[in-house]
Amino acid sequence: MGEPGSQKEPRADFRPIKSIRVLFFGIILDSSDSGTKGGGASYPFTFQFSSLPSGTWSVIIASWQGAVRRQNLPRGIIACNDDRTMIIQEYYNRGLNNPPVCANFESHANNYAYSNHFEWHELNGEFADGNPHDPFGWITTGLIDGLEATRTSYGAAIYLSSGYRCPDGNASPTINGAVNSLHMRGRAADMYRNANHTWANEAEFNLLKAEADATNPAPTESLGYNTYANHHYHAAW
Q1: Does the pTM exceed 0.85?
Q2: Parallel, antiparallel, or unpaired for β 159-162 and 136-137?
């Protein structure tokens, strides 16, 4: 902390915050610029206070152990004070309409029984780079109702290869998902009949698809066997 009246300049890699507003649900930091260091790359930070000539205080982003991305949310958006803020920022960064809010996301232990037949990790984790913010995820009632109805009528286990994806995870090279994928809305899942993520034949695929198509409401997306090279079944409700 500088001496009173000190006009010491912050280090070049420090970026002052224009203002800080404390709200009931979180804190909003208004940055002096709208960009993120390194084009949005993650970098460590802590908060350091610096005395300004005017006698006011400014929050300065400094160094901290552990990589955390700056939370430059648009003005008026409330920070969630955890990884949900970073996820929401990804929707803004990629220009996606109707971004979620903190309350859209849930966090559970991996083995948490989210429904009769699906645990949390099946819906939200184990998808390569699809959602590095685990255990936070966004699963809609429509998706879980559709999956449960499909599983019940199918009468056998269903294995998910992808569920919720954050925007950055959806765009990662290992996923390369559609720009407006419903996985990012917690509405889509990719399925196989067995844990090896294979099918005995196309007829086996079509049996599962038929059960999904028969749910009420029917899926808004139900893609065919040859849509993807690995033949996973994609459905969204």
Answers
A1: no
A2: unpaired
